[in-house]
Amino acid sequence: MTGQRPPQWAHKLRQLTSWAVEDCLGGPRPWKLAWVINFQKAGTLVFLGILIAYYQNTTMAAWVYLAMHGGYGLVWLIKDLSFPDAGWQKKITIAGGINAFIGVLGWYWVFGWLLISGYSDPSYPLPEPGWFALCIVMCLTGSVIMIAADAQKYYTLRHKPGLITDGLHRYIRHPNYLGEMMIYTSFALMVWHWLPFLILALVWLGVFAVNMMHKEASLARHPGWAEYRSRSWWLVPGVL
Question: What is the pLDDT of residues 79-104, one digit of tens each?
Answer without folding.
Answer: 999 999 988 999 999 999 999 999 99
